[in-house]
Design goal:
This protein has about 120 residues and is mostly beta strands. The radius of gyration is 18 Å and the shape is globular. It starts with about 20 loop residues before the first strand and ends with a strand. The mean pLDDT is about 85.
Length: about 120
């Protein structure tokens, strides 16, 4: 008789039966992302606006994804209620900006991840 041992890691499992409906929000003017929203479409036209990400939940990770809507050409500044935001170049500041649409994908599906203190990008 031979025995084979293996190391197995069991992670928390997520079983979705019937689908997953993340919350969507359309932002057209300066304002805040609602607490339960996962995806934001920014439809600000040529108007410069500021978007405030929701508060952190201490010790919990959180993700919010922002995309420019069609015709969105105005400046978009993103800030958190607290903590800092990582800019595209990696630097840390109180705010960051979203680029215009480009062939390289700028302005589309920019994800911000919170570690409970700061927002990473």
């Amino acid at each position: 008789i031979s025995f084979h041992w293996c190391n197995m890691i069991v992670a928390d499992e997520l079983d979705l039966r019937g689908g997953f409906l993340p919350q969507l929000q359309v932002i057209t003017a300066t304002g805040a992302v609602s607490p339960n929203v996962v995806k934001v479409i920014v439809s600000n036209g040529a108007t410069a606006i500021t978007i405030t990400l929701p508060p952190h939940v201490a010790g919990k990770s959180r993700m919010v994804s922002l995309s420019r809507g069609a015709g969105s050409t105005g400046g978009i500044t993103v800030r958190g209620v607290t903590g800092n935001i990582q800019a595209l170049a990696g630097a840390w500041a109180l705010t960051t900006t979203m680029g215009l649409h480009s062939a390289a994908g700028a302005g589309v599906d920019i994800q911000f991840w919170s570690d409970g203190t700061n927002w990473y990008r």
